[in-house]
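User: Sequence recovery, please. Input:
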């Protein structure tokens, strides 16, 4: 059984920073690609960032580029989303997603939620003054 567990959400003020974690577990699962999506109330789930497991390919949504950074701990099968300069519009439930591989379609499909096989339960990030 593959499980993804997010953590690190919370309530912060505009301009603050927050780091989300996504830990993958499962004895036979070795994720090749991991992504972050978010969903605000009343809105569709949207792509935030994605990374290939080796870190060669990294993509960010335009809305977070320059503010959010993906980092990794391969030994722990964990990916982090470092978020800085947070804005009100960053308020959402953040989900991590993963897919096994290798898969040549990653570079053309990384932003599609339907591309990923496994999902975490989500963690709430609220930016409020």
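Assistant: Recovered sequence (129 residues):
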């Amino acid at each position: 059984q593959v499980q993804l567990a997010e953590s690190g959400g919370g309530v912060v003020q505009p301009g603050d920073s927050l780091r989300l974690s996504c830990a993958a577990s499962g004895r036979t699962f070795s994720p090749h690609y991991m992504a972050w999506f978010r969903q605000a109330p009343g809105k569709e789930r949207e792509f935030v960032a994605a990374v290939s497991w080796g870190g060669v390919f990294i993509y960010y949504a335009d809305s977070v580029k320059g503010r959010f950074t993906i980092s990794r701990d391969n030994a722990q099968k964990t990916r982090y989303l470092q978020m800085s300069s947070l804005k009100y519009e960053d308020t959402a439930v953040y989900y991590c997603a993963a897919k096994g591989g290798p898969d040549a379609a990653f570079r053309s499909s990384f932003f599609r939620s339907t591309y990923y096989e496994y999902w975490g339960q989500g963690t709430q990030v609220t930016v409020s003054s």
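Helices lie at 106-109.
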